[in-house]
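Researcher: I'd like a structural prediction for the single chain below. Treat it as a standalone chain; there are no partners to consider.
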Amino acid sequence: MSDGDGGPAEGGSVAGESAGGAATATTGSRLDALRDRAPDTRREAEALLDRLVRENRFTIAVVFPLVGAVALVGSAEGWVPEPFAFHPWFVLFGVIVMRSPLVVGVLPTIGRRALGWIGVLTAYTYLIEGVGVATGWPYGEFAYTVDLGPMLAGVPVALPVFFIPLVTNAYLLCLLLLGPRADSVWVRLATVIPVVVAMDVVLDPGAVSLGFWDFGGGAFYGVPVSNYAGWVLSAIVAVVTLDRAFAAAGIRERLRDCEFMLDDMVSFVILWGGINVWFGNLLPAAVAAGFGVGLVRADRFDTRPFTEWRRS
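Model: Treating it as a single chain, here is the predicted structure.
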């Protein structure tokens, strides 16, 4: 009740204004704190991203692909109910997270030249996949039977997110293992092409078993031999393009210094190796295991969580 002179009402108003001012001040201080922590330069942003990936390596490279393998197999086997089975945004989100170590690892080497050539490789990716879906050349007749995110003319809009990291991982692994011998473009071609094809030996049988896409049958776990001939062509284009995109010294120095740069390949081994094991695709699973052994021997797999767990 008011006493007639507006005292209590004015007191409430003053209290409200005081509380509102305090809330505004708190919000302002939080924003100031966020601004202070936000990177001011590209180098600071790259350092921040490096730290985020480094501190979450095990979650990104091991937990995400394990969860993804269980979810995808569960979707294929009918254990995951609609509309969650093969949910396109879940698939795309998982892929983007698993790709993050590669993207963050490569980021300091990206300049205008690299962006231009990556744009060329992106255009090639859409072109060759669109031609493949429409004509069956060069991979053989196939069609996507699961939406991998938004689709356009039968091709995933996010196709470069799936394709370019795969060939980039093969390219970087070969640079790492070849050392000075990678100076020769012919050696790079002779090495990267088989590695890219070997990665597809793992990928396509698993994807066909899941029902991601369908070739209508094939001699190799439902995949036609023509598919691998098409991958030889794509590997050649990828090697030539990546050679143009990156300065050799810069990408090798970053690869040497960035221990998580090939963690996306660790995810690939766990995800697709596990899927192939489940469906009994023994040769693709063995090839995936071979990649895993190579990554461990190259000291490109963070085994500390496992060793720490055993000690505890």
